[in-house]
Amino acid sequence: MTPSDSGASALVIIPTFNERENLPKIVGRVREVLPEGHVLVVDDGSPDGTGQVADDMAAADPHIHVKHRTGKLGLGSAYLQGFAWGLGEGYDYLIEMDADGSHPPETLPEMVARAKARPIAQGGSALVIGSRWVPGGRVVNWPKRREILSRAANVYARLALGVGVKDATAGYRVYNAEVLRALSLENVNSHGYCFQIDMTLRVDTAGFRIEEVPIVFREREIGESKMSGNIIFEAMGKVTLWGFQRRMRQLTGLFSRR
């Protein structure tokens, strides 16, 4: 079933790797709160059989789609492939969501409504982020060390890049298809943690509006987190480079106008 068949305008993209137990739960909650929306599972060849679980759900529900990949190719490339598929199928809004239940689907209707509130040309939001670090947002059951790392990474990204977003690393997002078409996604080669920062920077640099909606982020109950301190520190190295490059472009533009 395509968007034109069902009247759907939103596609929720869920990358998976070994999420056999979590996937049916999160997809069920998404389908409940967005009954007209569609779900695309992008599975990286999960050895635990997640791909087969996704296929079984798709066979039972025409709103669910599955893309199989041959190995663990990374979060960034999973979303980029999901974006490409969703844009080709004509969805108006493309949504990023984790499979582990940390992103509350119950916030989706509000996030999609914010994205739909006004056209981009009239100052509407091109990107709506489910944010942990704006007033009303919080985390539950996170180790204190991980919370400190996330907060510090976001403060550093905000200062280094000159972007006003409080949760640039957040992976819970609603993109207007219009902004994704404008961003030259073929040039994005970021992976993992820094993919979200990279995309935030690109949207901001292009002059589009970014809005943050508070969410309650809960640590996964089943399986292991794929995040580590090393991943965060590696991403911050790239942020330093991007910040330097952005400042140099700004200075070059300033001097060229004189």
TrEMBL record:
The keyword Transferase applies. Keywords: Glycosyltransferase, Transferase. GO terms for biological process: glycolipid biosynthetic process. One of its GO terms (cellular component) is membrane. Pfam families: Glycos_transf_2 (PF00535). Coiled coil: none annotated. Residues 12-182 form the Glycosyltransferase 2-like domain. InterPro entries: DPM1-like (IPR039528), Glyco_trans_2-like (IPR001173), Nucleotide-diphossugar_trans (IPR029044). The keyword Kinase does not apply. One of its GO terms (molecular function) is dolichyl-phosphate beta-D-mannosyltransferase activity. PANTHER family: DOLICHOL-PHOSPHATE MANNOSYLTRANSFERASE SUBUNIT 1. Belongs to the glycosyltransferase 2 family. This is Dolichol-phosphate mannosyltransferase.
